[in-house]
Amino acid sequence: MTSRADPRPASAAGKPSRAAGETATERLQRLLALVPYVLRRNVAGMAETAAAFGITERELVDDLNLLWCVELRSPDPYCPIDLSYEGGEIVVSEAEGIDRPLRLGVDEACALLIALRMLTELPDVGDGAALARTIAKLEAAAGAAAGPSAQVAVAVDDVAAQSAVTAVADALERGRRLHISYYVPGRDEATERDVDPMRLVVSEGFTYLEGWCRRADAVRLFRLDRFLAVEVLEVPKNVPPTAQHVDVDHGLFRPSPQDVHVVLELGPRGRWVADYYPCEQVTELPDGWLRIRLRTPDTRLARRLALRLGEDGRLVSPPGLVSELMSDARAALSNYDNWDE
Amino acid sequence: MRHQLTLLREGVAMSRRKTERLLSLVVCLLSARRHLTATQIRAAVPGYPESFDAFKRMFERDKEELRELGIPLETGTNATGDEELGYRISRQAYELPDIRLEPDEVAVLGLAARVWRRAELAEAADGALLKLRAAGIDAEDDLSQLRIEPRVRTAEPAFSPLWEAVRDRRPVSFGYRVPGRDAALRRHLEPWGVGYRSGHWYVVGLDTDRGAKRVFRLSRIEGAVAFTGPAGSVTVPPGTDVRAAVRDWDYEAAAARTCLLRVRAGAGHDLRRYADRISADRHPGWDLVEVSYTDTTWWSEHIASFGADVVVLEPSDLRDAVIGRLKGVLA
Asked: Which chain B residues are Cβ-neighbours of A72 within 8 angstroms?
């Protein structure tokens, strides 16, 4: 597999420089980290340092000049920071007081600790013991700032998916192909497929297997709680080198030109739908109703949703789907007339 | 245009002077062995205005901003009987304690920081990595060995103020809309914690109007969250389990009932997988499926979603609920 997550820091991956439009205190935070960063390494390369801090080399030079210019006037004038940057290398020879980084703030400590504790619930994060050690070290280093992190719980649920998790983790570990029986709710159908696993993605409350689907000949995501059955095949996985990871930071499911726009109106008891499905448009109507617009690759999903909603929802468009829904409902009701036993 | 550019340049220069002044102030207070009075600070740190009143105002703001960054600015006197208060920063309180991580620990730390990417605490996670990097830990090391990519989302606008309220122990109020009601009600809460479950954020705390513990779903909060009391004024009861409260949010301890369904062959997989018993029906092409459920309303909705592929045979209240739901589609 040639494509993988970009291991470079965000700035090098094309993000705008962090120095753009920053406040005086944001810059101060960077300067207070920059000095110990260089000291810790004895000598630090300009390019690598700029990348690590998410700024351009010009901005780094400006930072170094600012540090060098710091002067205290009393009792006798002196410059507490001495440094040089020549030939692309930075050396800090004097840094009174600020030679160590500032403690972690509450938000900083909590962001990492909450995430680390979430990871403890996931399968296959490598060595579980490494997580426990990291949490303990970080808690010790953060001190009191770690406190509020205990008041945030990020649960990774899906009890139903536990057996699937074990098999998938095993296949990932040993590089094996999986055979899965996968439930497609839109079609209310069980599909059989062979998948070469790439990784697990945990997002929006669900755990997915990302893999090369040999039936679709493409990268697909499979929700673990929709596995009806799973088997680890004694066949080595074979992911084509062209396979690209799904971009988890820009929505797992990309709209496709083939998608159909569906407009639904939701009564007060049906408003939960707007929470559960990503809506393109949400409009409040009088009398507590809500109009939403969704896009879906499979209109059967929208039909099933409208059947579920009953009088708490109204399917508005497309018109063809409305008439299909009506015949669905009539066919379902006729079952009760025909078999009245 | 030229005027705007001049203003912009002045803004940049002002911001730079402020950074210089704050940095000098930090270095000055960190290297001081004794508490320094405002007068001594003014003499040592360049960049403060001439007039003492203007200096005092600017110094007050500077102290506030340093504290917001988490810099532990201490106030005190050097000897008993000293009239004037002085300031210093204790190195021990300022410095990140020594932290050394093994390569596998660095890898999970990098993974943890990525959990928040594109969510509310992303900046905080980046800030933490920056400080750890300064302590010699390079957490952006190769993550390709990890076969998992976890993310948390914070799409709800209420997340940010509620996290602040939990962190700072402040009571809040907000408009909350319960499904089935057409207007939001004002709720007052002493928040104890926030929790994430199945892609949604919840806040748990003491509902002061009802005098009892309540859990609220953030996506149902309407409008702004207001702070209704000072920081530190909420007491979290010992033993509070945020995770359990969020998990039990929609759980009702109702007795399970069993229903008998006629399910078309090859359909209804999402019912069959939880079935207690499946047997052949006397009508060809159909199976009899026995499955248990608790909430009749929710279960009738679920069954209705299968349309003509599922028929309820028993019990009759479930059967009537499904028929009612299907008629509602046609209404």
From this structure: 24, 27-28, 44-46
